Amino acid sequence: MKSTYSEAFVEQALVKIYLRGNRTIRSVADDLNVNYHTVKNWMKHKSAGKLGVTASKEKRPQDWRAEEQLLALLETHALTGEALNAWCREQGIFPHHLTSWKAGFCAESKDPASGVREVRTLKEEISTLKRDAVRKDRALAEAAALLILQKKFRALWEDEGK
Prior knowledge:
The chain has 162 residues and is an all-alpha fold. It is 75% helix and 0% strand. Helix 5 (66-76) crosses helix 7.
């Protein structure tokens, strides 16, 4: 039996789905007692913008790229107290995240030996890959030569057989 849902119900369900936070679409559909695929079909036909819902774009602090972290540190460098807390609330982070990001940037710049080690490791990896490529090229050339010889051998025996 096919269930029909009112337009108001569909819109309310989609609002709940778009504002679900960290829940899955399947769990919201189960709570609404609606088939998962039906909900996905509704989502295909009606976007969040048409419903007047802005999808949550908040990122977790660990999802911030290094460039974004650096920009955040530059923006908040002169801020203290309540202004810093207000900025952090707007961005969805805590002041201790800024402190840990700053420590991370400082720790990376203090240890130049790690960069040298990393470069050395990458150079060794490149040379190993080059050696493997040369070895594989030689093996491929040998296999091609063997195939050619095999064809010539068969052709020679076929000529003698006639």
